[in-house]
Amino acid sequence: MKYPKKFKDLIEGFESFPGIGPKTAERLAFYAISKQSKDASLRFADSLKDAISSICECEVCGMIADESKCEICKDDTRDKKLMIVENSKDVISFEKTNAYKGKYHVLNGLISPTNGIGPDDISIDKLISRLESEQFDEIIVATSSTIDGEITAMYINKLLASKGIKTYRIGYGLPVSTDIEYVDEITLIKSLESKKEM
Ligand SMILES: [Zn+2]
């Protein structure tokens, strides 16, 4: 006896999410169709569809947004600093620290020679054209301390240095080879305090 096709599709749907193995996917699928959670599941399905069709990238910084410009880019009271991060999740991590009040630029990826991802595959072009029109007092590169994070930071530093723009790198209270998303708030605050000129 096998599962009906539609139920199998549902399991595969859950399984395609990060961190969800076959067993958890199976459990979630059973939960989703169970009598007591049917209404909640349908609401979830609607919000999932709505989110996917309406959430976009901020046209200025690349952060996820539900309008063409995100809340942070619209906020004129922010400091004239720019922090360059890998993804929208990292923006939220730094926002939670309350230690940084500037703006962000989201690369939406990292340069990764081993995965065939080059500078053209992430939002560096946009960064350069942004720096031509927006003025910042300080630029901080806050990519992870992984190999790809370091390669990306070095690339950006070199590129900006060639245009006469100085950059800072967040400091190494940050453990080596760590993704920003796994770093606690205190460590992030320390990494900001100990930033160094590149
Ligand atoms: Zn934005």
Name some characteristics of this structure.
198 residues, alpha/beta, Helicase, Ruva Protein, domain 3, Dna Topoisomerase Vi A Subunit, Chain: A, domain 2, 5-stranded mixed β-sheet, two-stranded antiparallel ribbon, 8 helices, 7 strands, 44% helix, elongated, binds zinc ion
Query: Which strand order do you get reading across the main beta sheet?
Result: 4-3-5-6-7
The ligands bound in this entry are: zinc ion
Largest sheet: 5 strands, mixed
Helix content: 40-55%
The overall number of domains is 2
Sequence of secondary-structure elements: HHHEEHEHEHEHEHE
Low-confidence stretches: none
Tell me about this structure.
By secondary structure, the chain is an alpha/beta fold. The chain folds into two domains: 5-54, RecR Domain 1 (Helicase, Ruva Protein, domain 3, Orthogonal Bundle), CATH 1.10.8; 69-197, Dna Topoisomerase Vi A Subunit, Chain: A, domain 2, CATH 3.40.1360.10. The protein is 44% helix and 11% strand. It is built from eight helices and seven strands; from the N terminus they run αααββαβαβαβαβαβ. α1 (5-15) crosses α2 and α5 (88-97) packs across α8. The model has no long low-confidence stretch (mean pLDDT 92). The chain binds zinc ion (ZN). Zinc ion (ZN) binds at residues 58, 60-61, 63, 69-70, 72-73.
